[in-house]
Amino acid sequence: SDRLKGKRAFVTAGAVGIGRACALAFAREGATVFATDIDDKGVALLTKDGIAETARLDVRDTAAVEAMAKKVGDIDILLNAAGFVHHGAALECSDSDWDFSFDLNVKSMHRTIRAFLPGMLARGNGAIVNISSAAGVFKAAPNRYVYGATKAAVAALTRAVAVDYITKGIRCNAICPGTIETPSMLDRAAAAGPNGRELFVSRQPMGRLGTAEEIASLAVYLASDESAFTTGVAHIIDGGWTL
Ligand code: NAD
C-alpha cells in the first residue's frame, strides 16, 4: 500500500468512473492526490476517502489549467481522464461535434501536459498517464467516428511526449480500456434500448464489463517506479474485446 509513497498526483475528471478510481487508488498507494472535475461537488466527496485536495477544473479552459498548475505546484504523476464519447458515424458528426470532442479529449491533455511538464522537467521526474481507448487505437467500433479519431490522437500525443522527453526523466503512457462500467457507459447502454446493457456486455468476450478499479490498477503501475522501463506505450486492457 505504499507503491506511490511520497509522490504527488494530479487527476482530471476525477468525480466518477475511471478518473475517480485512479484518484482513490493513487491515494491508497500513498500518493498525495489532487483531484479535479467540472463536477466540483462530486469530486469534493473524495476528500473523505483520502484525497488530499479537490477543485473545480474545466480542462477545456487553458487559462484555468495554467492557473491550477501554478496553484498545485510540483507533481510526480499526471493522470488525464477527461473524455467524451460522441455517438455517430462521419455523417452524424458536425463540425462543432468534431471540435468539441477534440477539445475535450485531446487538447485537454495538451493543456495539462504543457502546464505541468516544466515542473516535472525541472526535477527530472514525471509519469504521465493518458486515458485513451481500445476503440480507435486497436479496433474500429461502430458509431465511434470522432471518438476513435480523438483516442488515436491521444495515443500519438503520448508517444510524442515519450520520445521528446525520454532522456529527461519523463515517462508518458496511455491506457486503452475496453467497455468499462462507469456512469456515462451505463447512460450509453440505456440509450441503446432496454437490452442496452446486455448489448454492451455481449461485445466483451469475457461476458462481463470491466471495472474502473481494474483500469486504476494499471494506472498505479504506470504511475509508479515499477514501470520505470516503460514509456510511450498504448496499454490495452479490454477483457479480450480485440482478440
Ligand atoms: P464518465 O464519462 O462517466 O465521466 C466523465 C467525467 O468527466 C465526469 O465526471 C465529468 O464531469 C468529467 N468532465 C466532463 N467534461 C469535463 C471537462 N470539460 N473538464 C473536466 N472534467 C470534465 O467517465 P469514464 O467513463 O470513466 O471515462 C473516463 C475516460 O475513460 C474518458 O476519457 C473515456 O473516453 C475513457 N474511456 C472510457 C471507457 C468506458 O467504457 N467507460 C472505455 C474507454 C475509454
Automatic annotation (TrEMBL):
<dbReference type="GO" id="GO:0016491">
    <property type="term" value="F:oxidoreductase activity"/>
</dbReference>
<dbReference type="InterPro" id="IPR036291">
    <property type="entry name" value="NAD(P)-bd_dom_sf"/>
</dbReference>
<protein>
    <submittedName>
        <fullName>NAD(P)-dependent oxidoreductase</fullName>
    </submittedName>
</protein>
<dbReference type="Pfam" id="PF13561">
    <property type="entry name" value="adh_short_C2"/>
</dbReference>
<dbReference type="InterPro" id="IPR051122">
    <property type="entry name" value="SDR_DHRS6-like"/>
</dbReference>
<dbReference type="InterPro" id="IPR020904">
    <property type="entry name" value="Sc_DH/Rdtase_CS"/>
</dbReference>
<comment type="similarity">
    <text>Belongs to the short-chain dehydrogenases/reductases (SDR) family.</text>
</comment>
<keyword id="KW-0520">NAD</keyword>
<keyword id="KW-0560">Oxidoreductase</keyword>
<dbReference type="InterPro" id="IPR002347">
    <property type="entry name" value="SDR_fam"/>
</dbReference>
